[in-house]
Design goal:
Structural class: mainly alpha
Number of helices: 2
């Protein structure tokens, strides 16, 4: 039976959160294209994703995702 440490759990949660962040960025990559008329809210959303996890005090145990604009 394997024993997991808090470090193992933290690394796992961090990996899951970062994978989810990458997927969210990938879904909105077209907002960053030079010929796409992205709104300030769309660009701010992508920046908030890129700023994770630095802006998350309880990361990765609690992840607060920015709201995706339309």
């Amino acid at each position: 039976k394997e024993k997991y440490t808090m470090t193992d759990t933290t690394e796992f949660l961090s990996g899951v959160a970062l994978a989810s962040r990458q997927e969210r960025l990938k879904e909105t990559d077209h907002w960053g294209l030079a010929d796409y008329p992205a709104t300030a809210e769309q660009l701010a959303y992508r920046q908030a994703l890129r700023d994770m996890p630095e802006e998350q005090p309880n990361y990765p145990n609690e992840v607060i995702w920015p709201t995706k604009p339309e």
